[in-house]
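Predict the structure of NHL repeat containing protein-like protein.
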Amino acid sequence: MASNRIAAGTGIEGLDSNQLTGPRGIFVDVNLDLYVADGDNNRVQLYQSGEPNGITVAGSTSLTPTITLRLPTGVILDAEKYLFIVDLGNDRIVASGLNGFRCLVGCYVKGVKSNQLNNPFSLSFDRSGNLFVADQINSRIQKFVLMNDSF
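Done. Here is the predicted structure for NHL repeat containing protein-like protein.
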């Protein structure tokens, strides 16, 4: 039998730094830090390895709020340590950069065109740095080739 423990949250929903409400997506980086798309709290929490309290790194309750999220469902860190977030409620993908966050795909316009999303749910990168997004309502997986000036 495997042993287990709670890695983030208390088991009781809430908005405090040690609580989550409706966590959807997670990502663990090479330092064993845990990023959580805390969907119903409209934020992304960073739980540094071994720490019970999270730090809001994206969302209106972060220390430097540069992005407002609505039901984030996916989160991933790329090789250059840029944070990518699926912002389901705003039908977009946002990414961190040198000057805060910015929209990469969707950008508040829901739709079926190749540069639009409708209820994006998760994302991933391949070895070449291409971004793949599960575009739920459009019943497709979108592939985006990101340019260096995307950040």
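The mean pLDDT is 92.
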